[in-house]
Every structure is written in C-alpha cells, then in structure tokens.
Specification:
Length: 451
C-alpha cells in the first residue's frame, strides 16, 4: 500500500485535471483543446524518462530512487499550482513527468522482487486500489475545487500525500543494494526519446494547425527512422537501455503491444468524459465530477472478486471479454446527450469502470509471467513506458478527432458543441477490437503459476 502512493498521486492528478480544464482555460485565456498540451506533456515526459528508471534503480537502489521520484513529483506539483501561463504549466508538467517516470515502475519492481508468484495477483490488486480510490476522488475533488475555489489547488493537493509517502517509505519499504551495472546507454536513450516524442508530437498536431503539414510529416518521419535505428542497434544486445529482446517473451509482447488499444480507451475516458458532460451536456464541474467518478467506483467494486475470477476463468478469457466490452462502453459514451437520464449515464460509466479494471489488472499481472529476475527492472520500465505512451496517444487521438469534427461542422475548436464528441468516442472505442484479436493469441494456460 505504501509503494502504491505513486498510483494514488498519478490517478488523482490525471482524473482531477479533466474536470478542471474548462476553468483553467478560462483563467489563462487559452483555447481549451490547447490544454491538451499540459496532459500530453506530462505523459510524454513519463515516456521519455521511463527507460532510465531501470538503470537508475539498479545503480542507486530502489528506495532511494523511489523517494527521490516522489519528491520531484511533489515539487513539480507545487510549481504547476503557481503557474500563470500555459507555457509554464507545460514546462512544470514535464518536470512532474520526470518524477512520475521513476515512481510507478520502481514501485512495481519492489513488488515483483519481494512477492512470491502465488501471491502476485493479490499483491497487484492491492497495489492498484489506491490508484482506483484516487480516480474516484479526483473528479469529485476537481469539481468542488474549481466551483468553490481556485483550480491551483488541484496541483497543491499532491504535496501532503507526497510527503507522507516519502516518510512511510523511508521507514517501511525494503531497500535493494545498488548493483554493479553497465554504463548508461546514452545513444539508446536518445534514439528512444526521439522516436517516442516524435510519434506523440505528430499525432498531437494533426488537425490542430499548430505547425504545417510538411513539418508534421518531417517530424513523424524522423521519429520512425529513430525507432528503426534503435531496433537495429539493440535487437541482439542486453546491455542497452531497453533490450528489444524483451518482446521475445510472447506473453509480455501480447499484453503490452496487443493491449495498446485497450489502454488508449482507459487513458482517454477520465479526460474526455468530463469534457463531454460539461460542454456537450451543460453539466457543472461538480456534476461532471460526480458522474465521472462512477468509472472508478466500478473499478473499485470489481476488486473483491477479481482474484476469484482469475482463478476460475484464467487470464485469457477475462482479457478478451474486457477489451471488447471496454470498447463498447467507451463508444456508448459518445451517445450521451442533453436530456438523457443521469442515472443511465452513471450506469454506463460504472460498467465501463468494471471492464476497464478487469483488463488492466489482468494485463499488468500476466504480462510479467516468464520474465527472468535479472530482466525485471528493464521489463517494468518498458511496460510502464508503453502504457503511458499509449495513454498519451489516446488523449492526442481523441483531441484530434474533436478538432476535425469541429471543422467538419463549420466552427473552430474553441467553440465545441455536443455533436463534435461522438466521433472521438466511436473511433477510439472501435480500436479496442484490435486488443480482442491480439488477446486470442495468448496461450490458454498462460499465467497458471500466478493463479
């Protein structure tokens, strides 16, 4: 529960921001979709610095890296709360992402190194509970904060929880001794950074007219070239920052590559459901926060029976079912309209939270089945990097769909209407079907040692 503090901080930070976007945009006098940079900058920063987390942990020890990461995250939160321009928020969110990049993979590594395989499912369930509680509290807190006070408190709230997490970690979390590691792979780090940042930037600028189309194509081409160069550079090596050979473990590959569309759904929902409720349906920040919280209520409600469900049905059937129903539930959100019963909306979000949680817990547990212990630090870094990058891609794709829909309907993205939203929810929801196809390739008995 102590090492799950980062999950709580990140969950609150992400979910609380969705209900406050409209208030922040009005305060800073910027187009609301431009605030997508604040979300994407954080997720992109996570992706950029995650590859270094495994090397730093082996070099400095788990507890030292963990506590330092929480401290950086909390400091950056304080800076975000004092920002006066969008540029400042973006810069401070990048710093926040640096801290976040070290928190979650190191916390997961502490569990993988200390928990026996037979108890790993239950440990992962408890590990995700604080994050789920954070996603419940985030939208509600965000709604009340922007209604009764200033949006700046949504960032300042992270500070006391960060301090508490550091103090408890220093007292209770076991520390691993620094190991003799290979030299930091700077060349590989740069190639990975260029590949990831170019991919997210290219998707972010589609339909926004932020840069010319030729510039977007050029940046996307550079990112693809960098990714290919890294693959050629590290495919037969184990001393690189993220060995591509990890994808040779079939279960890891299916859970992380095949699960990308499902993670896009999970990452987009806390951001765009509140926007739809506020802009498309005229709800207040408090009302949208209370409604969005049902995503996390559903995720929390399924926790008591998750272990029994995994033992009864196995990982494969649960992952296939969760991926299919998550896409349907997310697409159904695009049908929300004025006059629709709020009770029906909450039921849809509650079901979406249940199936999203089943998919995420199953993927994040079985994905490490069969990974050797000496590869765990780099495998957790790679898995977390892919998860955060995919979520940022989901946010960017939804924002691009909104912008394109606004143009089709003859107005700018500054004046979104209810009819601009369905396209984003339908497109991302449909993509989740790709995860269904990928999960069918998972061996039926995979993860038996974890059951």
């Amino acid at each position: 529960m102590i090492v799950a503090v980062p999950m709580f901080l990140q969950a609150v930070d992400t979910s609380i921001l969705g209900t406050a976007l409209q208030s922040i945009a009005a305060s800073l006098n910027v187009e609301i979709l431009r605030l997508n940079f604040a979300i994407t900058a954080y997720l992109l920063s996570l992706a950029l610095f995650l590859p270094a987390s495994g090397w730093l942990t082996d070099r400095l020890g788990t507890r030292r890296v963990f506590c330092s990461a929480v401290a950086v995250f909390s400091l950056a939160s304080a800076l975000c709360g004092s920002a006066t321009t969008l540029d400042q928020i973006v810069v401070f969110r990048i710093l926040q992402g640096l801290g976040g990049a070290m928190m979650v993979p190191v916390a997961r590594l502490i569990l993988l190194r200390n928990v026996p395989p037979g108890q790993l499912v239950m440990a992962m369930l408890w590990f995700t509970v604080p994050g789920t509680i954070g996603r419940v509290l985030g939208p509600v807190l965000g709604g009340f904060i922007v209604t009764l006070g200033s949006w700046r408190w949504i960032f300042l709230l992270n500070i006391p929880f960060g301090v508490l997490g550091i103090l408890l970690s220093l007292k209770f979390v076991p520390d691993s001794q620094p190991e003799k590691t290979e030299r930091f792979d700077l060349k590989g780090f740069v190639l990975v950074a260029i590949g990831l940042s170019g991919t997210v930037f290219g998707l972010e600028t589609i339909g926004h007219n932020l840069v010319s189309r030729s510039a977007t194509i050029l940046i996307a081409s550079i990112s693809i070239a960098a990714s290919i160069c890294y693959w050629m550079y590290g495919r037969n090596r184990t001393d690189v920052i993220i060995p591509p050979g990890i994808f040779g473990y079939r279960t890891f590959s299916i859970a992380n590559i095949g699960g990308m569309p499902l993670r896009m759904v999970v990452g987009s929902a806390p951001v765009f459901v509140p926007l739809l409720l506020q802009i498309g349906m005229g709800c207040t920040a408090v009302q949208s926060g209370l409604a969005t919280a049902w995503l996390s209520v559903g995720a929390l409600a399924i926790r008591p029976i998750m272990r029994r469900a995994i033992n009864e049905f196995g990982f494969k059937p649960l992952m296939i079912t969760a991926a299919g129903l998550s896409g349907v539930a997310f697409a159904a959100c695009g049908l929300f309209s004025r006059g629709m019963s709020i009770y029906f909306i909450c039921i849809v979000l509650f079901v979406a939270g249940i199936v999203n949680s089943i998919g995420m817990v199953a993927m994040n547990t079985v994905g490490f089945s069969g990974i050797p212990k000496n590869m765990l630090s780099k495998a957790t870094a790679l898995a977390t990097m892919m998860q955060q990058t995919t979520m940022s891609l989901g946010v960017a794709l939804c924002a691009s769909c909104l912008s394109i829909a606004a143009k089709v309907h003859g107005h700018s993205a500054e004046h979104l209407t209810a009819r601009d939203f369905p396209m984003a929810f339908f497109v991302v929801g449909a993509l989740s079907c790709l995860s269904v196809v990928a999960f069918t390739r998972l061996p039926a008995a995979e993860g038996a040692e974890l059951r």
